[in-house]
Design brief:
- The protein is of the alpha+beta class.
- Helix content is 22%, strand content 27%.
- The protein is built from 4 helices and 13 strands.
- The strands form 4 sheets. The chain has a 5-stranded antiparallel β-sheet with strand order 1-2-9-4-7, covered by helices on one side.
- The longest helix is centred in the N-terminal third of the chain and has 17 residues.
- The two termini are 36 Å apart.
Protein backbone atom coordinates (compact mmCIF):
# COMPACT_ATOMS: atom_id res chain seq x y z
CA UNK A 1 0.00 0.00 0.00
CA UNK A 2 1.33 3.46 -0.92
CA UNK A 3 0.33 6.40 1.25
CA UNK A 4 1.56 8.72 -1.51
CA UNK A 5 -0.76 7.06 -4.03
CA UNK A 6 -3.69 7.55 -1.68
CA UNK A 7 -2.72 11.17 -1.04
CA UNK A 8 -2.63 11.79 -4.78
CA UNK A 9 -6.09 10.24 -5.19
CA UNK A 10 -7.51 12.37 -2.36
CA UNK A 11 -6.02 15.52 -3.90
CA UNK A 12 -7.45 14.72 -7.34
CA UNK A 13 -10.86 14.04 -5.84
CA UNK A 14 -10.79 17.38 -4.02
CA UNK A 15 -10.03 19.14 -7.31
CA UNK A 16 -12.88 17.31 -9.09
CA UNK A 17 -15.38 18.15 -6.35
CA UNK A 18 -14.35 21.79 -6.27
CA UNK A 19 -14.13 22.40 -10.00
CA UNK A 20 -16.62 20.08 -11.70
CA UNK A 21 -20.24 21.21 -11.44
CA UNK A 22 -21.71 18.63 -13.82
CA UNK A 23 -22.24 15.34 -11.98
CA UNK A 24 -21.86 13.17 -15.08
CA UNK A 25 -18.46 14.66 -15.91
CA UNK A 26 -17.43 14.41 -12.26
CA UNK A 27 -18.34 10.71 -12.26
CA UNK A 28 -16.36 10.14 -15.45
CA UNK A 29 -13.26 11.76 -13.92
CA UNK A 30 -13.66 9.91 -10.60
CA UNK A 31 -14.06 6.43 -12.11
CA UNK A 32 -10.31 5.86 -12.86
CA UNK A 33 -9.42 6.95 -9.32
CA UNK A 34 -11.73 4.37 -7.79
CA UNK A 35 -10.47 1.77 -10.25
CA UNK A 36 -6.92 2.52 -9.09
CA UNK A 37 -7.87 2.03 -5.44
CA UNK A 38 -9.34 -1.37 -6.29
CA UNK A 39 -6.75 -2.66 -8.73
CA UNK A 40 -3.80 -1.61 -6.55
CA UNK A 41 -5.49 -2.84 -3.33
CA UNK A 42 -4.97 0.50 -1.58
CA UNK A 43 -7.54 0.07 1.20
CA UNK A 44 -6.13 -0.77 4.65
CA UNK A 45 -7.00 -4.13 6.19
CA UNK A 46 -8.77 -2.51 9.14
CA UNK A 47 -11.45 -1.24 6.73
CA UNK A 48 -12.17 -4.74 5.40
CA UNK A 49 -13.44 -6.42 8.58
CA UNK A 50 -17.07 -7.64 8.69
CA UNK A 51 -19.38 -7.08 11.65
CA UNK A 52 -21.45 -10.07 12.69
CA UNK A 53 -24.84 -8.43 13.16
CA UNK A 54 -25.01 -5.98 10.21
CA UNK A 55 -23.08 -4.41 7.33
CA UNK A 56 -20.07 -2.37 8.44
CA UNK A 57 -19.57 1.22 7.24
CA UNK A 58 -16.00 2.48 7.72
CA UNK A 59 -14.93 6.02 6.87
CA UNK A 60 -11.71 5.60 4.89
CA UNK A 61 -11.23 9.32 4.22
CA UNK A 62 -12.97 12.69 4.12
CA UNK A 63 -11.34 16.12 3.70
CA UNK A 64 -11.62 18.84 6.34
CA UNK A 65 -14.36 20.61 4.37
CA UNK A 66 -16.41 17.35 4.25
CA UNK A 67 -17.03 17.84 0.52
CA UNK A 68 -16.68 14.12 -0.21
CA UNK A 69 -16.22 10.83 1.57
CA UNK A 70 -14.68 7.45 0.82
CA UNK A 71 -16.44 4.63 2.64
CA UNK A 72 -15.70 0.94 2.86
CA UNK A 73 -18.88 -1.11 3.22
CA UNK A 74 -18.28 -4.68 4.41
CA UNK A 75 -21.13 -7.11 3.84
CA UNK A 76 -21.17 -10.34 5.79
CA UNK A 77 -22.76 -13.40 4.20
CA UNK A 78 -26.44 -12.69 3.58
CA UNK A 79 -26.32 -9.12 4.92
CA UNK A 80 -28.17 -6.23 3.29
CA UNK A 81 -28.89 -2.54 3.84
CA UNK A 82 -32.36 -0.94 3.89
CA UNK A 83 -33.58 0.74 0.71
CA UNK A 84 -32.23 4.29 0.67
CA UNK A 85 -31.16 7.30 -1.37
CA UNK A 86 -27.92 9.34 -1.40
CA UNK A 87 -28.76 12.93 -2.40
CA UNK A 88 -25.32 13.26 -3.99
CA UNK A 89 -23.53 11.76 -6.95
CA UNK A 90 -21.09 8.93 -6.48
CA UNK A 91 -19.54 5.63 -7.48
CA UNK A 92 -19.35 2.18 -5.91
CA UNK A 93 -16.57 -0.27 -6.70
CA UNK A 94 -16.58 -3.95 -5.77
CA UNK A 95 -13.34 -4.50 -3.85
CA UNK A 96 -13.87 -8.08 -2.74
CA UNK A 97 -16.17 -10.94 -3.77
CA UNK A 98 -19.55 -9.91 -5.25
CA UNK A 99 -22.53 -7.69 -4.42
CA UNK A 100 -26.10 -7.47 -5.69
CA UNK A 101 -27.80 -4.13 -6.34
CA UNK A 102 -31.56 -3.68 -6.33
CA UNK A 103 -32.72 -0.51 -8.10
CA UNK A 104 -35.97 1.35 -7.36
CA UNK A 105 -37.94 4.28 -8.72
CA UNK A 106 -40.35 6.54 -6.89
CA UNK A 107 -43.88 6.69 -8.30
CA UNK A 108 -45.47 9.41 -6.11
CA UNK A 109 -44.63 13.12 -6.19
CA UNK A 110 -43.37 13.32 -2.60
CA UNK A 111 -46.06 15.76 -1.51
CA UNK A 112 -47.38 13.57 1.32
CA UNK A 113 -45.17 13.63 4.42
CA UNK A 114 -43.84 10.19 5.37
CA UNK A 115 -45.37 8.50 2.30
CA UNK A 116 -43.46 7.03 -0.64
CA UNK A 117 -44.59 4.61 -3.32
CA UNK A 118 -41.58 2.91 -4.92
CA UNK A 119 -41.15 -0.09 -7.19
CA UNK A 120 -38.19 -2.23 -8.09
CA UNK A 121 -36.81 -1.63 -11.58
CA UNK A 122 -33.94 -4.10 -11.70
CA UNK A 123 -31.56 -6.47 -9.94
CA UNK A 124 -27.90 -6.78 -11.01
CA UNK A 125 -24.94 -8.79 -9.73
CA UNK A 126 -21.57 -7.05 -9.76
CA UNK A 127 -18.35 -9.07 -9.60
CA UNK A 128 -15.05 -7.99 -8.05
CA UNK A 129 -13.53 -5.06 -9.92
CA UNK A 130 -16.81 -3.75 -11.34
CA UNK A 131 -17.87 -0.16 -10.71
CA UNK A 132 -21.48 1.01 -10.33
CA UNK A 133 -22.49 4.54 -11.24
CA UNK A 134 -26.05 4.36 -12.52
CA UNK A 135 -28.58 5.10 -9.80
CA UNK A 136 -26.27 7.39 -7.83
CA UNK A 137 -26.61 10.57 -9.88
CA UNK A 138 -28.58 13.37 -8.23
CA UNK A 139 -29.07 16.80 -9.73
CA UNK A 140 -31.87 19.10 -10.79
CA UNK A 141 -32.36 17.19 -14.05
CA UNK A 142 -32.28 13.57 -12.89
CA UNK A 143 -33.30 11.73 -9.73
CA UNK A 144 -32.52 8.04 -9.89
CA UNK A 145 -30.59 7.24 -6.75
CA UNK A 146 -32.83 4.86 -4.78
CA UNK A 147 -31.32 1.41 -4.27
CA UNK A 148 -30.00 -1.11 -1.82
CA UNK A 149 -27.05 -3.48 -1.82
CA UNK A 150 -26.97 -7.00 -0.46
CA UNK A 151 -24.53 -9.88 -0.27
CA UNK A 152 -26.13 -13.10 -1.46
CA UNK A 153 -22.94 -15.14 -1.20
CA UNK A 154 -21.60 -17.25 1.65
CA UNK A 155 -18.54 -15.09 2.38
CA UNK A 156 -17.86 -11.40 3.11
CA UNK A 157 -18.00 -8.83 0.33
CA UNK A 158 -16.47 -5.34 0.31
CA UNK A 159 -17.54 -2.31 -1.72
CA UNK A 160 -15.76 1.06 -1.81
CA UNK A 161 -18.03 4.11 -2.10
CA UNK A 162 -16.95 7.58 -3.22
CA UNK A 163 -19.72 10.15 -2.63
CA UNK A 164 -19.79 13.90 -3.15
CA UNK A 165 -20.85 14.48 0.47
CA UNK A 166 -20.02 13.39 4.01
CA UNK A 167 -22.47 10.55 3.43
CA UNK A 168 -22.54 8.99 6.89
CA UNK A 169 -23.47 12.32 8.48
CA UNK A 170 -25.89 13.41 5.76
CA UNK A 171 -29.63 13.39 6.38
CA UNK A 172 -31.06 11.07 3.72
CA UNK A 173 -34.13 8.90 3.22
CA UNK A 174 -34.94 5.27 3.96
CA UNK A 175 -37.86 3.57 2.21
CA UNK A 176 -40.14 0.67 3.06
CA UNK A 177 -42.14 -0.44 0.00
CA UNK A 178 -44.24 -2.88 2.01
CA UNK A 179 -45.98 -0.12 3.98
CA UNK A 180 -45.12 2.71 1.53
CA UNK A 181 -43.26 4.87 4.03
CA UNK A 182 -40.17 7.08 3.92
CA UNK A 183 -38.22 8.51 6.85
CA UNK A 184 -35.08 10.53 7.43
CA UNK A 185 -31.95 8.77 8.63
CA UNK A 186 -28.20 9.10 9.05
CA UNK A 187 -26.21 5.98 8.26
CA UNK A 188 -23.19 6.90 10.41
CA UNK A 189 -19.74 5.33 10.55
CA UNK A 190 -18.32 2.33 12.37
CA UNK A 191 -15.05 2.40 14.29
CA UNK A 192 -12.45 0.28 12.43
CA UNK A 193 -10.40 0.01 15.63
CA UNK A 194 -13.28 -1.68 17.46
CA UNK A 195 -13.42 0.85 20.32
CA UNK A 196 -17.17 1.40 19.87
CA UNK A 197 -19.75 -1.26 19.13
CA UNK A 198 -22.30 1.03 17.47
CA UNK A 199 -22.07 3.73 14.83
CA UNK A 200 -21.25 7.36 15.41
CA UNK A 201 -24.17 9.14 13.74
CA UNK A 202 -24.68 12.49 15.46
CA UNK A 203 -22.36 15.46 15.78
CA UNK A 204 -21.44 16.25 12.16
CA UNK A 205 -17.69 15.76 11.80
CA UNK A 206 -16.87 14.88 15.42
CA UNK A 207 -15.32 11.52 14.56
CA UNK A 208 -12.67 12.13 17.23
CA UNK A 209 -15.37 11.24 19.77
CA UNK A 210 -14.61 7.62 18.95
CA UNK A 211 -11.33 8.12 20.80
CA UNK A 212 -13.00 9.62 23.89
CA UNK A 213 -13.94 7.55 26.91
CA UNK A 214 -17.55 8.41 27.86
CA UNK A 215 -18.17 10.03 31.21
CA UNK A 216 -21.42 8.07 31.52
CA UNK A 217 -23.19 5.26 29.64
CA UNK A 218 -26.96 4.95 29.30
CA UNK A 219 -28.30 1.53 28.27
CA UNK A 220 -31.77 1.84 26.69
CA UNK A 221 -31.70 -1.41 24.73
CA UNK A 222 -35.10 -3.08 24.64
CA UNK A 223 -36.96 0.25 24.81
CA UNK A 224 -38.85 1.72 21.85
CA UNK A 225 -39.51 5.37 20.93
CA UNK A 226 -39.86 7.78 22.61
CA UNK A 227 -38.30 6.32 25.76
CA UNK A 228 -34.61 6.15 24.70
CA UNK A 229 -34.70 9.83 23.68
CA UNK A 230 -36.48 10.97 26.85
CA UNK A 231 -34.07 9.01 29.05
CA UNK A 232 -31.16 10.50 27.09
CA UNK A 233 -32.46 14.01 27.74
CA UNK A 234 -32.81 13.29 31.46
CA UNK A 235 -29.32 11.79 31.69
CA UNK A 236 -27.75 14.71 29.84
CA UNK A 237 -29.12 17.10 32.46
CA UNK A 238 -26.95 15.32 35.02
CA UNK A 239 -23.70 15.85 33.10
CA UNK A 240 -21.41 18.86 32.97
CA UNK A 241 -20.26 20.90 29.97
CA UNK A 242 -17.81 19.00 27.79
CA UNK A 243 -18.73 15.59 29.16
CA UNK A 244 -19.58 12.72 26.81
CA UNK A 245 -22.64 10.51 27.19
CA UNK A 246 -22.68 7.14 25.43
CA UNK A 247 -26.19 5.84 24.67
CA UNK A 248 -26.82 2.21 23.76
CA UNK A 249 -30.04 1.57 21.83
CA UNK A 250 -31.40 -1.11 19.49
CA UNK A 251 -34.23 1.16 18.30
CA UNK A 252 -33.43 2.46 14.80
CA UNK A 253 -35.89 5.35 15.05
CA UNK A 254 -34.28 6.42 18.31
CA UNK A 255 -30.74 6.17 16.92
CA UNK A 256 -31.34 7.79 13.54
CA UNK A 257 -33.94 10.42 14.43
CA UNK A 258 -35.22 10.90 17.98
CA UNK A 259 -31.97 11.00 19.99
CA UNK A 260 -30.01 13.24 17.55
CA UNK A 261 -32.96 15.64 17.32
CA UNK A 262 -33.34 15.73 21.10
CA UNK A 263 -29.64 16.46 21.51
CA UNK A 264 -29.57 19.19 18.85
CA UNK A 265 -32.70 20.86 20.19
CA UNK A 266 -30.97 21.07 23.58
CA UNK A 267 -28.07 22.96 21.98
CA UNK A 268 -25.66 20.05 22.45
CA UNK A 269 -23.62 17.84 20.12
Amino acid sequence: MSSQELSDIYQQLAEIIKGEKDSNRAISRTRPLLDEMISKRLVEEKFLKPIKSRPAAYLVYKPPDRSFSIISMVWGAGQKFPIHDHLSWGLIGVYQNRITEERYERLDDGSKEGYADIRQTGVTNFEEGRILEEGLVFDEHRRNDIHRILNQTGRPSVSIHILASDLGMKQRHQYDPNVKTVRRFQSGYDDPEGRREGRLIAGSDRSELLLSAPHATLDTRGLECPYPASKTSSKLSELGIGQVLEVLTDSENSAYDEIPEKVKSSGLE
